[in-house]
Amino acid sequence: MEDMALHPAIAVPAMAKNQPVGHGSSLEQQQPALLAFSSVLALALVVGGSRSRSLVTMFGKHDSRTFKGKLNGHTFGKCRMKGQKKRRLKKIRNGTYDPSTVVQSGQPEPLHPWDVPTLLKNKLWNHGRQQALLDAYEVEIERQKEIFRKNWKGRYGIKGPQYYYQDWTPPGQELAEEVAAAVVSAKVSAADVKALRGRSRAGMLDCQKALKESDGDMDKAMEWLRKKGISKADKKAGNLAVEGNITSYVHFNSKIAVMVEINSETDFVASNAVFKDFTSDVAMQIAANPSVAYVSVDDVTGDVMAKEKELEMGKEDLADKPEHIREKMVVGRLKKKFEERALLGQTWIKDESKTVQEVLKERIAKLGENIVIRRFVRLNLGEGLEKKDADFAAGVEKELAKFKAVAKAEPPKPVEEKSKEEAPKEKTTPAAEGPKITAAQVKDLRQRSGAGILDTKKALTACAGDVEKAMEWLKKKGISKADKKAGNLSVEGAIASYVHFNSKLGVIVEVNSETDFVAMNSVFKNFAQDVAMQIAANPDVSYVSVENVAPDVIAREREVEMAKEDLAGKPEDIRAKIVEGRLKKLFADRALLGQKWLKDEDKTVQDAVTETIAKLGENIVIRRFERLVLGEGLDKKDNDFAAGVEQELAKYR
User: Fold this and answer.
1) What pLDDT score does 397 carry?
2) How far is the C-alpha of 593 from the C-alpha of 608, rounded, in Å?
3) Do residues 222 and 209 lie in contact, with contact meaning Cβ atoms separated by under 8 Å?
4) Helix (DSSP H) and strand (DSSP E) numbers for the chain
5) Helix 190-200 to helix 218-236 angle, to the nearest 10 degrees?
6) Per-residue pLDDT band at 21 (split at 50, 70, 90)
7) What are the Cα distances from residue 452, in Å, to 226, 427, 439?
8) CA nearest to 240, candidates 260, 261, 262, 266
9) Which residues neighbour 498 within 8 Å (Cβ) at sequence distance 6 or greater?
10) What whole-number distance in Å separates Cα of residue 174 and Cα of residue 413?
11) What confidence score (pLDDT) does residue 62 get?
């Protein structure tokens, strides 16, 4: 009984026998519950074994059968060793282990707020502590400093805390740049670093080093960072940039539009918000500088430079100068002239203290990749067209005259005499009386055609009530109106742009109208936008119409077709006809007006233009367009993606 009382699982029933029985209960009613409880405890004791396998121990120290459980349960030696460690121990026993072949892990660590030197200067931490304890900390720091400086190889500028090497140079060496960037100067406060980082958007370590090199002067630190950014940008200048974005800028009055292609090395940077903002700013910069014609002076072609040089050499103010003096003066003038026309030398529109070239290098330093402003196109509405200086009041009077009543109560006599003279001519071709046109027919035809009430009624009368013929009549009438308007001068209008959602394809198009009243119409604006999308959807389109093909292009294509082998045995006149047919088809496929309309494949672009002319009542001309495709003409390297990621990660090791 004494042994049974010692064990808790067995002592419970024995103790239960001595307990008083409550009112209304019996010992027989309590025995089943006590027996069940004792059985559970006994089973847990047998199965669980020792206390180290209890639930508390297992969940407190992890499962002792796992690697983590043995590690946290201080029984690591009892588990199976990892393969890497096992192989390393085997090499050490055999004497073949070379520590220099081990891949370096870790990086230079700057002075953190939780490091001891920082804590000793923290008044909240050392307040109330005995001075003897603080002195002991100082002694320990000096001892650790001597140890680290003695064994500096493999640590100095490579890994571990670097504050031990502050204001110290290894024997026979100069202070490494990496360590200087990692060491935090005691003179630099966190507030200064934060303020400089907000102004420059540079890294924390770069800001710390800049303030240290500039003795805490914020302006000098900004200049130091700018120089360092330029240095980094120059290192990136040789990298191949084939990714990037295409961005367009259209002025609010739709009279100026710019589209620019800016390349980066990877699409990761191209999708960055800083890069996208930079491309938009560059497009606005080009639009604000109408004299800009090239990205840089290097983009000036040889024939343009030769032509400008010839013009400068022929000026009268250089006629009496010696030849070598004239040559130098012309070179200086051309250099200045082309620099004024180059984008990179322009003053940055958002900061007049910088140039576009400097801002470009700052973005290169910030994003860590080479960035290239490759090309741009600009369209000015009506450029090269002669605009008539018409009287505005006379134009309004002319428009209002269209809506005046044709018939008057008492027309002038000369008009009556003229009508009497022309009366015999009208009798020669009397109009036949057609069937009666009902209001339902007019309504039906108007819904189908969208024409006016008088036009639909006249069409039904002319076609004897045949709706299909009336539709054809209205279509011909619309074409006739368009033909009448085709000779009118169109110098107003709008420039529309379309950039695909991935920013890899862009189009700007100039669509002209006769007056700015129509140019401001929503129907006209939507039509111009649809034309831009139409051009983007047809990559083979190169001209607005066949008439826009240059003669030298036609001659070159004709020469290519005439030299084909399938025409070798045919007579000359037959060959000429076949070639002309092929050329006509070739250029028709490349002309915009002959393409199927994007929103209705039953029509062509020419049909859409004609319908818009009939609807707006003015001549409309698709004058020109420009298309940019990202990376067009560049050779893109097919790099291994995994190797590229590894290369990027290697920068931070």
Assistant:
1) 64
2) 9
3) no
4) 29, 10
5) 50
6) very low
7) 67, 29, 13
8) 266
9) 506, 507, 508, 529, 532, 533, 535, 536
10) 110
11) 52
Find out whether 626 and 379 touch, Cβ atoms under 8 Å.
yes
For the chain, give every domain's residue range.
Answer: 2-78, 105-234, 236-380
216 DSSP assignment: T
Gap between the Cα atoms of 448 and 31, Å rounded = 97
Name the residue with tokens 């330093």.
Answer: 365
Q: Which residues in 172-208 are b (16+ Cβ under 10 Å) and which e?
A: eeebbeebbbbbbbeebeeebbeebbeebebeebbbb
Quick one: pLDDT at residue 509?
Answer: 95
Residue written as token pair 């209304």: 24
Whether domain 105-234 has CATH 3.90.1170.40: no
Which residues, in sequence order, are bridge partners of residue 597?
600
Neighbours of 311 (CB within 10 A): 11
Q: Each residue of 558-595: pLDDT tens digit?
A: 888 888 788 888 888 888 888 888 888 888 888 999 99
Q: Please give the pLDDT value at position 456.
A: 80
- Of the listed ranges 265-269, 470-474, 491-495, the least confidently predicted one is 470-474
Closest to 575 (Cα-Cα) out of 588, 561, 556: 561
The C-alpha atoms of residue 615 and residue 460 are separated, in whole angstroms, by 20
For residue 369, which amino acid is it?
Answer: E
Cβ atoms of 605 and 593 within 8 Å: the answer is yes
- Sheet with 505-513: strands ordered across: 492-499, 505-513, 621-629
Cα separations in angstroms, 200 against 197, 204, 221, 456: 5, 10, 10, 69
Token reading at 288: 């604000």
pTM score above 0.85: no
Supply 647's token pair: 């290369």
Can you read off the two tokens belonging to residue 160? 């571990």
Query: Tell me: the pLDDT tens digits for 387-413?
Result: 655 555 666 666 566 555 444 444 555
The angle at the Cα of 260, spanning 258 to 263, to the nearest 5 degrees, equals 170
Chain Cα centroid distance, residue 344: 21
Widest pairwise Cα distance in the chain: 149
| The three-state (H, E, C) secondary structure of 513-580, written as one string | ECCHHHHCCHHHHHHHHHHHHHHHHCCCCCECCHHHCCHHHHHHHHHHHHCCHHHCCCCHHHHHHHHH
Helix (H) or strand (E) holding 248: strand 243-250
Contacts of 313 (CB under 8 A, 6+ apart): 326, 330
**Residue bearing the bigger pLDDT, 10 or 479:** 479
Q: Between the CA of residue 418 and those of 407, 428, 478, 571, 629, what are the distances in Å?
A: 15, 17, 30, 62, 64
Residue type, 365: A
Question: C-alpha distances in angstroms, 227 versus 223, 230, 236, 365?
Answer: 6, 5, 15, 10
pLDDT band at 162 (very low <50, low <70, confident <90, very high): confident
491-527 residue pLDDT tens:
789 999 999 999 999 999 999 998 888 889 999 999 9
Do 287 and 381 contact (CB within 8 A), yes or no?
no
Domain covering 236-380 assigned CATH 3.40.630.30 in the classification: no
Phi, psi (deg, nearest 5) at residue 132: -65, -35
